[in-house]
Amino acid sequence: MSTRLRWLGHSALLFENDGKHVLIDPFLTGNPKAAIKPEDAPADLILISHGHGDHVGDSVAIAKRAGATVASNYEISGWLQQPSQGLSKVEGLQHGGSFTFADWVRVKLTLAFHGSALPDGSNGGNPCGFVLTFPDGTKVYDAADTALFGDMALIGEEGLDLALLPIGDYYTMGVDDSIRAINLLKPRHVIPIHYDTFPAIAQDARAWAARVEKETDSRPVVLEPGDWFDIPK
Ligand code: NI
Ligand code: MN
Questions:
Q1: CA pair distance 217, 32, nearest whole angstrom
Q2: What residues pack around ion ligand 2 (CB closer than 5 A)?
Q3: Does a structural domain hold residue 227?
Q4: Is residue 228 part of a domain?
């Protein structure tokens, strides 16, 4: 089965493969670019990259409704299991660690350079990105919120079909550093995220795509919130 992605706006990503769904950073309530409502989000597995509100988002409510498993770092997994959040199907990993969910998708936590305090001020551990490997062999890197870092070259050695990179600047890498990141990661396709949601992270995605075409060997794909992308394999 092929793997496809729907961009839900900001850093919220929905992957579909073999009728199952991975939802990442489902910030929908309060997201001016949200493509769907949290009650309409399907999820078998939810991944949370770090503790900030624009990434934890509606994770708890969606997990409870959908009966989804939630995976994040060890500290956030503990927070999710507190009585105030009340989740029980939780995986708590750390950087470099991976697990296979339901004999289906393999998830590895990667480094990310950012903050991770939770919305209530709790310690959210360290932020991460994700490498996902689907049963059809499709390999995807979601950098989530991060600066450029040289070890992206190591992630690229895995052979990426798709990378999702923030380009908004201010809180994460901006356009210039995203070009350098693409040249380290060498993904077949690259999609920009974490831009235009708020004025502080406004970017011209078409101009970004033109630079990717000219300055890298990767193919840029600019989506509108709600768009699907069939990941070529
Ligand atoms: Ni953040
Ligand atoms: Mn963010």
A1: 33
A2: 54, 145
A3: no
A4: no
232 located within any domain: no
**Strand 45-47 vs strand 228-230: parallel, antiparallel, or unpaired?**
unpaired
Distance (angstroms) between ligand 2 centre and the Cα of 28 equals 13
Q: What is the pLDDT along the chain (233 residues), one digit of tens a residue?
A: 699 999 999 999 999 999 999 999 999 999 999 999 999 999 999 999 999 999 999 999 999 999 999 999 999 999 999 999 999 999 999 999 999 999 999 999 999 999 999 999 999 999 999 999 999 999 999 999 999 999 999 999 999 999 999 999 999 999 999 999 999 999 999 999 999 999 999 999 999 999 999 999 999 999 999 999 999 98
pTM: 0.98
CA distance 164 to 65: 27
Angle, helices 205-215/175-185, rounded to nearest 10 degrees: 40
Question: Which ligand approaches the C-alpha of residue 51 most closely?
Answer: 1
**Domain span holding position 157:** 3-221
C-alpha distance across the termini of the chain, in Å? 10
Total of domains in the chain: 1
Q: Indicate the SS3 state at residue 4.
A: strand
Instruction: Give me ligand 2 centre to Cα 147, in Å.
Output: 12
Which ligand has an atom closest to residue 169 CA? 2
CATH of the domain at 64: 3.60.15.10
Ligand nearest to the CA of 116: 1
User: In angstroms, what is the span from residue 158 Cα to ligand 1's centroid?
Assistant: 25
Instruction: Look at the block and give the residue holding tokens 């990503």.
Output: 13
